[in-house]
Amino acid sequence: MFKTRLLSGIVLVAVIIGLLVLGGSVLAVSLGLISLVGMYELYRTVGAEKTLLGGVGYLAGLSYYLLLFFFEDPAADSIPTLFFVAFLMLLMAVYVFTFPKYSAGQVMTAFFGLAYVAVMLSYIYRTRVMAGGKLLVWLVFLSSWGCDTCAYCVGMLIGKHKMAPRLSPKKSVEGGIGGILGAGLLGGIFGAVFSENLAGALESPALHCAVICMVGAVISQIGDLAASAIKRNHDVKDYGKLIPGHGGILDRFDSVIFVAPGIYYTIVFLMEGTDALSRFLG
Length: 282
Description:
Blueprint (H helix, E strand, L loop, with lengths): L1 H21 L1 H21 L7 H19 L10 H17 L6 H26 L3 H4 L1 H21 L3 E3 L3 E5 H21 L1 H4 L6 H29 L15 H32 L2
Antiparallel strand pairs: 1-2
């Protein structure tokens, strides 16, 4: 089991490295496909993966990525709200004209699937195409997976106080703190190594990358526990079996899904300061 998990993990990391290096349409298409698989896994938890309701969700996910890729500025927060309104209206149309075939919970999960999987994962692409994104996008995975590794090591060594015993009995408060500090250290090292390359994007690369990764680490742990909560609510051990030894897309990318938008907005704020915050708040 360990050998299978290790080998598939190495392959997964190699694939991700290749996608992040290539960027552009290759990354956009790959994230779109990953999102569709993740949406399928989520819809399966409520029995909507092979229904008209699920089909509408997949179509919306595909349309979202096409809109994102062909939009004038994919790094900006300018994807029309009309898209989400139209998607909700279409879901409700399916709901009422096929009533009582689907439950309200299935409809809400269909809408949630687009936001939770497709939209949040798209921030990997948004980060990649922003100024300095060729390097900054690595912070998404450095903070997420770095936090997981550091939290596990610290938790095994000194973990005593349970963080969320009903969701993940092995996670400890000490491990969580270790994960945040460890991710911050990794981010600081990353920023220092690539300080010259990042100078045009971040004023203080080492410090800012450390802060970005620490923010990402906090969000990463919330995302991990959120995915566990959904699985427990539906008595599911793993979302899928696509990745040997790791489970499905959502099992492996549960924290990355949350981290990606968190990293993106933290970078934007550090780049543009209060002006960015004012625009974000409207």
